[in-house]
Amino acid sequence: xxxxxxxxxxxxxxxxxxxxxxxxxxxxxxxxxxxxxxxxxxxxxxxxxxxxxxxxxxxxxxxxxxxxxxxxxxxxxxxxxxxxxxxxxxxxxxxxxxxxxxxxxxxxxxxxxxxxxxxxxxxxxxxxxxxxxxxxxxxxxxxxxxxxxxxxxxxxxxxxxxxxxxxxxxxxxxxxxxxxxxxxxxxxxxxxxxxxxxxxxxxxxxxxxxxxxxxxxxxxxxxxxxxxxxxxxxxxxxxxxxxxxxxxxxxxxxxxxxxxxxxxxxxxxxxxxxxxxxxxxxxxxxxxxxxxxxxxxxxxxxxxxxxxxxxxxxxxxxxxxxxxxxxxxxxxxxxxxxxxxxxxxxxxxxxxxxxxxxxxxxxxxxxxxxxxxxxxxxxxxxxxxxxxxxxxxxxxxxxxxxxxxxxxxxxxxxxxxxxxxxxxxxxx
Length: 428
Hints:
By secondary structure, this protein is an alpha+beta fold. It has helices spanning 17-26, 81-90, 100-111, 162-168, 177-185, 238-255, 271-284, 306-316, 330-339, 350-360, 373-377, 383-388, 392-400, 405-411, 421-427, and strands spanning 3-9, 34-40, 43-49, 63-65, 70-78, 121-129, 135-139, 148-152, 155-159, 201-202, 207-211, 217-221, 263-266, 289-295, 319-325, 366-368. It has three domains: 3-221, Glutamine Phosphoribosylpyrophosphate, subunit 1, domain 1, CATH 3.60.20; 237-375, HUPs (Rossmann fold, 3-Layer(aba) Sandwich), CATH 3.40.50; 380-427, no CATH class. It has a six-stranded antiparallel β-sheet, with helices on one face. Strands 4-5-6-7-11-12 form a six-stranded antiparallel β-sheet. A hairpin with a 5-residue loop joins strand 6 and strand 7 (135-139). The chain is globular, with a radius of gyration of 23 Å.
């Protein structure tokens, strides 16, 4: 995780370096290993670095390639950067670093905005073109890496977090009624490009934005998820589907080992994290570290699931850490936990993951986890009823929505009530 930010002016005024510095400072926890600011006239970029790939100073950001006339700030990881680097070297490009940041720069110079279609990874980046004055911003296919922006007639600011933009100042923090309806309905999620604030937007996943020197912005969706069988999958048996799913998962965990630092696993002992451990051990043996968290028991309620994670550790002989968290730390950490979120998620395990991350960071910088598996594989309780329903929308509303529109109307002030925007977006 790193933090990126920047400002581009559309008038004759110079970029506000102090505002960019405030944004970067607000993201120090995203990147404790290094920082930098580059300013050239009407643009300024800032970066907070967590060193994962190419730990040398040659990969420091913002990265300037004077020969190409480009400057980049980048957050994420391009898993296929070694292959792309080799291809670009074949085209005559020379490299001064060994990481993925410079590969993005060269790829953009070689292939233009089509370069994003070649990237396999998670990313948010912004590139400034010296000769045209144009800025190009992009976000990965699933929106794993965040990118928020605030656009006004005379400038645009962007950052990895909404709170960083607030630190820069001059943001319209009026509550967006549409976003509030989403937030109160979709488990605290506000679909892009909206945020809870009128004055802040987020670049949608799989989107590339080009900002011209006069402030005109154009966007392109460069990828969409294809549902259903491919032609080559027609006639697949159950075993074929199992084999292909396993192959996809193997590739997924292998790609996420691309790092110049050790990679561990958060192991709860559940199906998802245990499967990741099994796939990694199948590939590399028990040469990595795993982490489990436990709290104090309350009455008859167990505060940990060590009995499950112990089974996996025994089976694969990983270098395991049992992290016990004093319950007295939980409530004091809650405010800080919420404060670090750009868009606060309402979930009982937020503070647990926050404290777990603090403890794990004492050992490693990178871990894999099973988070998100229920979304991908339909593991939540509202999925099975939808398969049997003749009215999928009504069933989805019943099982997924936090509240229906009538309850929403009763819960919020009249000034925020207009239409059932959440119902409309699902129906679309």
